[in-house]
User: What shape does this take?
Amino acid sequence: MSGGQRAAFTRAFAATARRRLRRAQDLLAIASPDASRYLQRELHLLGGEAAFLGFGEIFTLVRRGEDQAKRWPDDAAMSDQIDMTLASIACLLPPLPEPPPAAPRRALIVADSVAQGWLLRDLLEHAGYETAVVTDAAARADLVPDVVLCSLTSTARLDTAVRVVRGRSPAPLLLVSAETRDELAGEAARVHADGFVSTAGGLLAAMAEIRTFEQEAT
Amino acid sequence: MNTTPDDAPCILLVDDSPLTLACAEEALREAGYRVRTAPDLSELDAAADGQAYDLILMDVVMPEAYGDDVAAMLKAVRGLEAPILLLSSLDEAELAERVRDAGLDGFIPKSAGIDGMVDRVRSFLAARGAAR
Assistant: This one.
């Protein structure tokens, strides 16, 4: 068997074994003859897989767990021992592969105040976003946004920005301002924004709101 | 692409662990054998019906029945002539006893690992004149 195939089966074992251990833990909470039987079966399967794939140390521990499970729940003290055995097995399992890194989210910031634009950019980049900042929505940005943040003090510029952004991108649009939430809610409704974030409660709270909005939107 | 020739020895694998089944199938195919798998008795019933095998590899502890009992039944009632090896993680002494009691052809401990299993299958079939 090639190294690649063997690695794939080892990854499959890592995932399967964790599922079996989770089921074993669930069964341990039931404490009945049926639970004992199912627990023995779960461990037997895990043992066979470990042996076959060359995880001898895991196999030895699983075999011990099987013996303990045969005496449980008649011997209630076995519960703790089985628990320890399962924990020891978990420590020996091959690691699960790292999940692929999430693609960075992209935010377009439309701000008529340069300082406010930079502030939002720093905040978002610190949170892992790719950003582009423009002072005028009509200015072309290379970035195709996942979310657009509009921080514009002029009503006319805001109306123009919303129109331009909507025409170019389906990304959700959020109004960002230091106004109170009530004031922002009215403005957001007027321009049909997808949401709003008030920075009145601090930038970190605002960032948390942006994240929440993004998670709900995706 | 699977290029296993039609006259390659055909092996039936019976095991209720999907992972073990997949590993063993992959390794045996790569070694040049034709392979059919059965994860339970119903699949085994369909697989054993009218198909000739050069070897059957049978797990022992399965939810519906013990593999050695099933193997003995296949030979005695169905008249299956294919050799049957137990493939199990049970102790070798216990496997030897089960093989003897059920009148089977031998066993391969799962602790032999994937490559060990392929080696033993190859040796077994070579000794019977069905080598790959």
User: Anything to note?
Assistant: Chain A has eight helices and five strands. Chain A touches chain B at residues 1-2, 5-6, 9, 12-13, 16, 41, 44-45, 47-49, 51-54, 56, 59 (CB under 8 Å). The CA atoms of residues 40 and 66 of chain A lie 5 Å apart.
